[in-house]
Design goal:
The chain is an alpha/beta fold and 103 residues long. Helix content is 19%, strand content 24%. The chain is built from 2 helices and 6 strands, in the order βββαβαββ. β4, α2 and β5 form a beta-alpha-beta unit. It is globular, with a radius of gyration of 14 Å.
Amino acid sequence: MFPVHNISGRIVAFGGRTLRTDKTVAKYQNSPESEIYSKKRELYGLFFAKKAIQQYDFAIMVEGYTDVISMHQAGWRMWWLRPVHPLRPNRFACSAVLPGISR
């Protein structure tokens, strides 16, 4: 389970990733939508990345919770989970990289 923080740092939801390879089971499970959590509004990891994104004026968007954690462990601090719907990256940075993400 991964805690999802809003931009202020408050935990507003949880997400998880299944380890099962069964294609009938969703790969990711998230908290249900509520008054305080909307998957369209919250970007996993952005609370922790926003200072580095502003400092470097650059962001890297990745696909999954574990991708965000891997980027952090590798020393990259300007990442966030890519949004379900496009979000203007210029809120925090002028440049954003979306690595080749396959579905």
